[in-house]
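Researcher: I'd like a candidate sequence for this fold, 392 residues long. If you have to choose between options at a position, lean toward the conservative one.
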C-alpha cells in the first residue's frame, strides 16, 4: 500500500518556523522581513491555513477497495437514501421563526427578544459556537467529496453516494440558517463578529485526517453526527430550563435531523464491518488514535487565538458537549458495531479491536482524575457577545 504524503504548500514562505502555543498544537509564523504585499498574503495564510502541524496523508485506501463502494451502490440506494426526508415533508427555518410578511411580525420579534433576555451569556456562547459550526457547511461537503469511491464526480452525479451527499448537505443547510436567523433576531450577540468568524472558518477548512478514505470518512461522520445530536439536544434541554420553549424546539428539531443522519452513517460503517471487518476495525482504531477533531477546530474571530478551546471549555462547563460525551459516543459506536464480538480478524485486526474496546474505560479513568483536580476560575471575553467576560 503506497502512501502519498503531502504537506501544506510552503512555496510562498521564504522562511518558516514553528511556534508552540499550547501542547499538541503549533502555529506557523514568519521569521523574515517581507515586502508589504507579501505581509498581507502572510496574514491571510496565517488564519486561513491548517494550523495544526502534522503530515497530511492522502489516498491511503488501496485502489482495489474502491470496488467495494461501487458494488454497494444498489445497497446504498435502498438502505441509505431511505434516511433522507423529502423536501415537501421537511421542516424549514421559517416554520420556527416570526413571519416577516405577517402583521404580527414585530410583536413576535419582541416576544422572542424578551425570552432571550432570560438566557445567560454562557449559553449564547455555546449556541453561537454551534451555529458557526453548522455554517461552515461548505467545508463538510468538500470533505465528503474528498473521499475516494463515493465522491460526487460531476457536481450532479446520479450515484447513490453523490445523491446522499448533496441531499444531506441540503438538509444540513437549514441548521445554520435557522440558528443564524434566531440569533440575529435575539439581539443578544454581535452578528458582525460572528459573521467574521464564519468567513475565517470556511476559509480555513478542516483536516479531519480521513486521508480520502471512505472507511475513515464514514467513521468520522458517524462520530460527528452523534456529537452534534448530543450538543443540540443539550442546548434544547437548557433552553427549556430557561423557560424558552420555542428555542428548545429549534434546537430539538435540529438534533432530530442529526440523529437521522447518524443512523445512516453508522449503517454504512456497519456494512463495511460486515464486508471487510479487518479493514474497518483498523480504520476505527486509526481514527481514534488520531482523535476525532471537531469540525470547527480552526475557528478564529480575528481576536482570540484560542477561540475554539475557549468555546469548548464553556460547552464543557455548561454540559453542552463534554469529555464524557466524547467517551459515551465512542462506547456507543463500539457497541453499535459489535466490535467486541468480531471474529476471524488478522493479528493486526485483533490488536486494533483490543485497542478500540479498551479505550472508553481508559478515557473514563482519565476523566475521573481530571475532575478531581481543582479547576481555576478563569474568565475570557468573547467577541461574539460584545467582549463580555464568560467563565471557562
Ligand atoms: Fe447540522
Ligand atoms: Fe449533522
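Model: Candidate sequence:
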Amino acid at each position: 500500500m503506497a502512501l502519498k504524503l503531502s504537506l501544506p504548500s510552503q512555496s510562498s514562505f521564504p522562511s518558516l518556523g514553528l511556534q508552540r502555543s499550547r501542547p499538541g498544537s503549533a502555529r506557523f509564523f514568519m521569521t523574515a522581513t517581507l515586502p508589504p504585499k507579501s505581509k498581507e498574503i502572510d496574514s491571510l495564510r496565517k488564519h486561513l491555513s491548517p494550523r495544526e502541524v502534522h503530515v497530511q496523508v492522502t489516498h491511503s485506501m488501496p485502489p482495489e477497495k474502491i470496488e467495494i463502494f461501487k458494488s454497494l451502490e444498489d445497497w446504498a440506494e435502498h438502505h441509505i437514501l431511505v434516511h433522507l426526508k423529502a423536501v415537501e415533508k421537511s421542516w424549514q427555518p421559517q416554520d420556527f421563526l416570526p413571519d416577516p410578511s405577517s402583521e404580527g411580525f414585530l410583536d413576535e420579534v419582541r416576544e422572542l427578544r424578551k425570552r432571550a433576555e432570560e438566557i445567560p451569556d454562557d449559553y449564547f456562547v455555546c449556541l453561537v459556537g454551534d451555529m458557526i459550526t453548522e455554517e461552515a457547511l461548505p467545508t463538510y461537503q468538500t470533505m465528503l467529496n474528498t473521499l475516494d469511491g463515493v465522491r460526487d464526480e460531476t457536481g450532479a452525479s446520479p450515484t447513490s453516494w453523490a445523491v446522499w451527499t448533496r441531499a444531506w448537505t441540503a438538509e444540513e443547510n437549514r441548521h445554520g440558517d435557522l440558528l443564524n436567523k434566531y440569533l440575529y433576531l435575539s439581539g443578544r450577540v454581535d452578528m458582525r463578529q460572528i459573521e467574521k468568524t464564519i468567513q475565517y472558518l470556511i476559509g480555513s477548512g478542516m483536516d479531519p485526517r480521513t486521508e480520502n478514505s471512505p472507511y475513515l470518512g464514514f467513521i468520522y461522520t458517524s462520530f460527528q453526527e452523534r456529537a452534534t445530536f448530543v450538543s443540540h439536544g443539550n442546548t434544547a434541554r437548557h433552553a427549556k430550563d430557561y423557560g424558552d420553549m420555542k428555542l428548545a424546539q429549534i434546537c430539538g428539531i435540529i438534533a432530530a435531523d442529526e440523529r437521522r443522519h447518524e443512523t445512516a452513517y453508522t449503517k454504512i460503517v456497519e456494512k463495511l464491518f460486515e464486508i471487510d471487518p479487518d479493514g474497518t476495525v483498523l480504520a476505527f482504531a486509526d481514527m481514534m488514535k488520531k482523535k476525532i477533531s471537531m469540525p470547527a477546530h480552526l475557528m478564529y474571530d480575528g481576536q482570540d487565538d484560542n477561540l475554539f478551546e475557549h468555546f469548548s471549555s464553556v460547552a464543557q462547563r455548561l454540559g453542552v458537549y463534554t469529555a464524557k460525551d466524547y467517551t459515551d459516543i465512542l462506547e456507543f459506536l463500539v457497541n453499535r458495531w459489535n466490535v467486541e464480538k468480531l471474529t476471524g480478524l488478522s493479528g493486526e485486526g485483533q490488536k486494533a479491536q483490543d485497542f478500540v474496546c479498551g479505550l472508553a474505560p481508559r478515557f473514563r479513568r482519565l476523566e475521573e482524575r481530571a475532575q478531581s483536580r481543582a479547576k481555576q476560575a478563569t474568565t475570557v471575553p468573547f467577541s461574539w457577545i460584545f467582549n463580555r467576560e464568560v467563565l471557562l
